[in-house]
Amino acid sequence: MPMPDFKTYDDSNIFAMILRGEIPNKTVYEDDHALAFHDINPQAPVHVLVIPKGKYISMVDFTAKASDAEIAGFFRAVGKTAEILDLPDPGYRLLVNHGPHSHQEVPHLHVHIFGGKHVGPLLMRGWEGKIKMPNMD
Ligand code: 5GP
After folding, report:
1. Which of 25, 105, 110, 133 is the most buried (most CB within 10 A)?
2. Average pLDDT, the chain
């Protein structure tokens, strides 16, 4: 899959298609500012994505361009989704990728919510060079 350029919003990205209703999703929560749905390839027993409804590529793009109402609404939706999923007790992890070094695949801002088991250490070990990492430079 070619890497997105992360500079110009791409209306053909998969989450834009989900927002337009062109691709189905398993919705957990939806309001005026955000949509939360199950990841198609879950990496934990609970793996849900929360996306803003506006056209934002990344957290930098979102926080630079979105209105205060959109930003507040989006982060409230993340918290609300975690509550709906019954995750605050015993806990969960939020993760946001940005750009090639993080392996961001879909160029529409999304917060991953992981839970339902112990989700392990914060980052995969290997950056020191002991494990061969894919060359994404
Ligand atoms: P990223 O690597 O960009 O942070 O994460 C993209 C996520 O989107 C991946 O976890 C991937 O499984 C998920 N994803 C990709 N295509 C689809 C899709 O069509 N539907 C859903 N629900 N998730 C998708």
Report:
1. 110
2. 92
